[in-house]
């Protein structure tokens, strides 16, 4: 058997432990990371490219060495990569010009969406929705509680 070929055309020996480790990580956490990326970038082709970039990136080595949970680190990195790709794809991505004051149940979901999926700072969300910063934080906490019970 010969050498495996990477996407960039370079060859890798089949016994490379780093590549074997990344493949194992992909098999274990790939679906989870892809789900996170799809929440931010709902285009499957672009999401798949980001997923490949995620597991091929040098930042993945830092995830392995970090003292925190590997799954959490991969989620954070997937989110970061997806938000970065989203910013590149859309040069200017302002908050909606005239945000509608949704029902209270939907406010928590809107704030979570703006923060997690679109990457806006909590201060910017509070200012735009004309809410105190503490209420924005409470909305996110309440939304997490709702997600845990659903």
From TrEMBL:
Protein's name in the database: Sigma-70 family RNA polymerase sigma factor
